[in-house]
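Entry:
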Amino acid sequence: MTQSFSDGAPGSASPGFSLVEMLVAVAIGGLVTVSLIELLADSKATYLRETEYARLQEDARLTALLASEKLRTNRSLGCRGIALVEQEGQFTVEACKLLDTPSGADCDHDGWKADPTFLSMDRALGYDNSADLSNASNLTDLPGDGAINIAARWLRGDVFVTWGVDGAGAGVTSTLTSVTAQDGGYEGAGMLEIAAIPDGVEQGSLALVTDCVAADLFEVTGPDGLESNGDVALAHEVSIGGNDRSSNASDTVSRAYNWALESAPAAQERMTSHPLYRATVYPFSYDAYYVCCLHTNDRSIQSGSDVDRCTEEGSDFDRYRPSLCVWSAEDGQSRAVVTNVADLRVTYTGDEDGDGELDFHADDTAPTPTAAWVSSANGGRGAWAGVRAAALEVLVATGRDNVGTASKLPASDAWPPGTGEGVMAGDTLGADLPADKRLYRRLVVNVAMRARTPWYIAP
């Protein structure tokens, strides 16, 4: 007898998977899914880490370029160094914003006429964080308004100061021969006729006029067009627009720039023995750099108690980031230039006793030539006049936390002035920063100050 089986009848072959097979398949699928998720997470973490590291590298590069440019030309007067010009007594500062004290709009403090070399070899190039730099009285060599502005915004680290010619100049096309008896200088109607307005020169900015023999520094009160020959006149008048705010100590400059022999006043016979020097007007900057606390959304710089937002952990901690800020005498304001600069340290190389030989170096540790040491060196008289170079240490961080694989301290005991044997000195870069998972990079820039090198200084 033949027996047939219909679908579903007992003994027929059942299609599909058994329970065991399904469990095995689910387990394998789960493992694959988990692996894919982990791979995706690792890829995302790697992408995030590489992106943040690229930004860190870019911030470090920008900081290095900025520091090199500003420090290298520090205290440069164009064709001459401040050391030689000051030695000859040929440098005159007439800008009130550099002469006066806090909030004083006029050059009316006692003895302001005795401040012709207010910017000099002895002026401090920096301030050390061993002092409380949130106190303006510890920034004594800065213009008063600048000291107040920085003290209210300083977060941590040292402060370094730069000033000097900042860009290309334009030739003076006129001749100044009019003697002003009151100030003993040459007036030129409070104007300097030049071929063109140099980049960076505008109303309220600082400018320097020099013929490589003398130099005068003043605040620009307004370039006006000259219809006669298409040139322009750079005004350096005492007041702006007839108001009461004084801009310069006087309308005069110390020298008859571009004077011609045939037009020299008879009363000034001493001028007839001098050749004609072609004068040039340069943009001039006076800046102080420091670490501030920046609100990354609106780019505002925190001040007062708000500065603590860069030190306190919280839900908005990543919104407030330490940054490199600069205060400029041109507008009297601070602005952020590089974000995620966590700390700043500056040491110096120079000649302490004036014998022409280097006595201290930026990498010394006994003593460490910080700004505080340089100010107290030379028997308390300071050694700023002998500083020839600076080593700028910058600690740059990633903007995001949780970029690294483990939480670690940003500082290293191997960084000066630590010993590298587990000792973390108070002046070590980043010594007061807590452990986190950000990436940090220490950048060191060694820069010789061109206007302070021996070949630039008269014997």
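The helical segments are 19-72, 82-87, 96-99, 144-153, 371-376.
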